[in-house]
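TASK: fixed-backbone design
INPUT:
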């Protein structure tokens, strides 16, 4: 990847003269089954561009509870795009609203009542990060999209990790974007590019998105250096299966040590612990990197974590349990 970056052909990407960036955007658009795609420095910028172009001030947008656009983007859907967020519960499974819930949420969306909000957009997320990398299968995706379209809503898919969903389900990424107007996908994260995401949609959408990216300060000059890295990253899609296997290995090992873990569907393992700060402290002391939030510890596997690294993590945790630093295993002992 570093070698490809060093030898990348470049041009001024703000003026659309960068050949490597063009190649990347065309390749990703095809993978996502959309006519066009635009590189952005981050998934967060890709999402806010999409929301800003779908919404007008005061429009309501629907998203699954805990969606990145609701909880992890500093409120940009409201602050910058002017939307009124509405969370849909996970009543069909982790990270997945049911068709009945969505049907109720879009009731009357086509009318513009005197007092009510206009509902204009449905945001789906696949995989759903805060649901532990949970996947939305194509048939459920299709049903949700159909309800939204029937009600006149646009559909945006936050597919930051759509590659993981595609590998886990054994379907091409484009099968998971069917019916959506716009899609975000990340080239960093599991695929391993140092920087970069895309937002994909119609040619007309991407033209407008390019202007908005410039407004947000996301236009880069010789972007081909970054696009070259992203092109290498796209060769890594199939290898995500190893991350998924490592996540399962970690979850199984944690469960054997007495941790309360969800069965991972992709590369994220969520563990519920009763004393998050102390558990995090112990993990740090053991040299194990993880994130915490909502009473849970989040472990993520990726291409820099090998099967033997997972075994090392489990050995260190077993040893910590043995020394009663973690007691009972899923709870760090106070003091
Ligand atoms: C579902 C989802 N969307 C968007 C993003 C934002 O991507 P970035 O960190 O590149 O801004 C993330 C980041 O973790 C994510 O999980």
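OUTPUT:
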């Amino acid at each position: 990847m570093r070698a490809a970056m060093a030898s990348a052909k470049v041009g001024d990407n703000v003026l659309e003269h960068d050949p490597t960036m063009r190649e990347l955007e065309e390749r990703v658009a095809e993978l996502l089954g959309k006519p066009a795609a635009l590189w952005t420095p981050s998934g967060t910028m890709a999402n806010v561009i999409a929301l800003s172009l779908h919404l007008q001030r005061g429009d309501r947008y629907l998203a699954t509870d805990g969606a990145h656009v609701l909880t992890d983007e500093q409120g940009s859907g409201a602050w910058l795009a002017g939307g009124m967020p509405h969370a849909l519960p996970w009543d069909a499974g982790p990270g997945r609203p049911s068709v009945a819930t969505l049907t109720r949420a879009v009731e009357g969306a086509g009318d513009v009542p005197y007092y009510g909000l206009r509902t204009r957009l449905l945001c789906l997320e696949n995989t759903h990060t805060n649901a532990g990398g949970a996947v939305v299968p194509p048939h459920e995706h299709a049903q949700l999209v159909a309800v939204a379209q029937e009600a006149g809503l646009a559909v945006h898919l936050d597919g930051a990790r759509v590659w993981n969903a595609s590998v886990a389900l054994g379907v091409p990424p484009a099968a998971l974007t069917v019916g959506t107007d716009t899609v975000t996908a990340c080239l960093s994260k599991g695929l391993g590019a140092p920087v970069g995401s895309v937002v994909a949609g119609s040619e007309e959408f991407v033209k407008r998105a390019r202007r908005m990216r410039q407004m947000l300060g996301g236009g880069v000059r010789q972007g081909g250096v970054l696009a070259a890295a992203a092109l290498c990253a796209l060769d890594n899609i199939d290898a995500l299966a190893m991350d998924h296997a490592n996540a399962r290995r970690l979850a199984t090992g944690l469960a054997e040590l007495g941790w309360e873990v969800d069965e991972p569907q992709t590369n994220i393992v969520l563990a519920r612990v009763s004393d998050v700060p102390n558990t995090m402290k112990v993990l740090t002391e053991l040299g194990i990197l993880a994130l915490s939030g909502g009473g849970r510890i989040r472990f993520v596997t990726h291409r820099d974590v090998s099967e033997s690294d997972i075994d090392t993590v489990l050995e260190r945790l077993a040893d910590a349990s043995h020394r009663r630093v973690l007691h009972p295993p899923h709870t760090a002992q106070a003091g």
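COMMENT: The mean pLDDT is 95.
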